[in-house]
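[AMINO ACID CHAIN]
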Amino acid sequence: MKIAYLFLNGELRGSKKFYLDFIENHKGDIYCADGGANICYELNLIPKEIYGDLDSIKNNVKEFYQEKNVNFIKFKVEKDYTDSELVLNEVQDKYDIVYCIAGLGGSIDHELTNINLLAKYSNLIFISEKEKIFKINNNYEFNSMINRKVSFIIFSDEVKALTLEGFKYNIENLDIKKGEARCISNIIVENKANLSIKSGSLLCVIKEN
């Protein structure tokens, strides 16, 4: 399985050790979107490429990575896409999973925009020490996650026949529309829990213990 890491310019949200251990255990290529390079630098990591208009990267960070011969791909300041989307357009087809680090927190408009990228990029997963966020648009199995708190947010106009098994609050063939808050703060109670939907998509938020 090919893995990539994309550093954005949000908040790290957790200890440096968590991210370093995660990257060590799931080896992959590292990319940065502009100011995400500052966070990558804090972790003493060397990215494969840095993308953006380069208005948020610190001068000392830029100089350091230039000395390390990191490839910079510069975009115009005035552009139709965010730096994060431009990076994903370039790299997401090359990898099975793209883990997004520092995509949450910070400015609320940037955070919501980043989360909205899940609608377009199905292999994108946001990770922090506190949570994991990804999109589900078909059946999904949760293994060895007893006592984990999980929330499901409607990510399409409607979800048809949502069924949950192995949760504290099981559901059978529920039709639910965007804007309804019916699936928040559930808990996995069995070693194997299953989710199935007939159509639609969900945003899944798994709280880390």
Observations:
- The chain has a mean pLDDT of 91.
- The first helix runs from residue 16 to 25.
- The longest strand covers residues 158-165.
